[in-house]
Amino acid sequence: MSTSMKPIKLILLSVFSAAVLTLTGYQPVLAQHSTSQSLDLKNVKTLLADIQINAGTLKLTAHNTTKADARFTYTKDAWKPQVKYNGEPGQGMLSIKQPKEENTNMKDKDRNDWAIILPQEVATNLKLRMGAGETNVDLRGAKLNRVVVDAGAGEFNVNLANTSVSELDVNAGVGEVNLDLSGKRNNNLKASINGGIGSLNLVLPRETGVRVKVNGLGSLDNSGFKKQGGYYVNDMYGKTSHSLEITINGGLGNVELAMEK
Fold this sequence. Notes:
- By secondary structure, this protein is mainly beta.
- Helix content is 9%, strand content 55%.
- The chain is built from 1 helix and 18 strands.
- It has one helix spanning 2-24; strands spanning 33-40, 46-63, 67-74, 82-88, 91-97, 112-119, 123-138, 144-159, 167-171, 174-180, 189-194, 197-204, 209-215, 219-221, 226-228, 231-233, 243-249, 254-259.
- The protein is globular, with a radius of gyration of 24 Å.
- Pfam families: Toast_rack_N.
């Protein structure tokens, strides 16, 4: 009799254990991989940087350093970024890309976190492509020539305040894009922004002339700007030696123009 009861006890124990795991919300912890890379760019005058992440979180900053540093944390081996660098006298070409976009199918417990630091004093042409997730770019005060941004789905925060960027191209996707172009300008800026589905929020300088052309079907909040022909301008437009000329092709979302505080 006792022998025939053992399978029943084992079944009951398994059911009880599964119920406890469900009630406590336990989920198995996924293994994480971490890799890092560092490049010495002390002899580099100009840098071409191409960064592409398919999904996850990206933190990109500029520091007062001669090195480019990167740290990656991910839960799947297939997501390991490919880092390539080619150097010529005075110029470097840095590529950081995630292989095979179709393999980046993230679940709740998956991680794909990138933290990249670029040297602040190296004149940089930056191309940045983000698939889905959260991106925080803080390049305040950096020497930038041209910046191209392709934002996918999610939240995208880009701070280019007090930079030397002269050309800017932004393609917004689905979600929220916050772009800070405030601060002191020592050169002209020509920017083209294609809005997507969601919100596009721009912070613009108060003491430098700004002229914005807005096309599209979305709504517009232009507090602090006045209409001049087919443009929106601030009070300093036409009165400063440098200016920002911005064209926004709005999508189906909201565009907000805000003056720096």
